[in-house]
């Protein structure tokens, strides 16, 4: 099972993610980001790619979609907070959105 | 452009949808439903089918997904409330979830 990030890995990982637009979620050990696309097809196409990766990782986002916008929250429910899985999935989401 | 449902068509349409688990959204002329599936793959598979239909209709849901659960809100932003488009999409969502 994934373990919560320790202080050192957390700072290192979060610094990078914050630069790419992720931010902490108030009141939860979680991160969030809003992704905007040019159309619904682009937005859902990205979600489809992420969904396949998430299923392979057995680690799934909380996300919502309205037309071309997708809001994502990542945390590891089993661990009660952020783990390596969230950092990995966040980076893959960013890479697929480029 | 789609027009808001009049009182008669609204009652007729909503009665049927309420029987299948849809409910009005507080403070908005919109309807909502929670869909639960057996797995993330089933949930996202259903979303993918709905996404194609929504794009064909040029009418898109507000929806969020956490693992095997999908929460949907339907309204027609252009019309400022519920239209035939929402009723049609709601029925197609139900049919695809069976």
UniProtKB/TrEMBL annotation, chains A, B:
The keyword Methyltransferase does not apply. Its EC number is 4.2.1.96. It catalyses: (4aS,6R)-4a-hydroxy-L-erythro-5,6,7,8-tetrahydrobiopterin = (6R)-L-erythro-6,7-dihydrobiopterin + H2O. InterPro entries: PCD_sf (IPR036428), Pterin_deHydtase (IPR001533). One of its GO terms (biological process) is tetrahydrobiopterin biosynthetic process. It holds the Pfam family Pterin_4a. GO terms for molecular function: 4-alpha-hydroxytetrahydrobiopterin dehydratase activity. Keywords: Lyase. Belongs to the pterin-4-alpha-carbinolamine dehydratase family. This is Putative pterin-4-alpha-carbinolamine dehydratase. The lineage of its organism: Bacteria, Pseudomonadati, Pseudomonadota, Alphaproteobacteria, Rhodobacterales.
């Amino acid at each position: 099972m994934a373990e919560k990030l320790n202080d050192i890995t957390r700072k290192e990982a979060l610094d990078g993610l914050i630069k790419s637009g992720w931010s902490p979620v108030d009141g939860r050990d979680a991160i969030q980001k809003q992704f905007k696309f040019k159309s619904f097809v682009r937005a859902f196409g990205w979600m489809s790619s992420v969904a396949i990766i998430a299923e392979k990782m057995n680690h799934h986002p909380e996300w919502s979609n309205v037309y071309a916008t997708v809001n994502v929250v990542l945390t590891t429910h089993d661990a009660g907070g952020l783990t390596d899985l969230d950092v990995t999935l966040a980076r893959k989401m960013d890479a697929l959105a480029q």
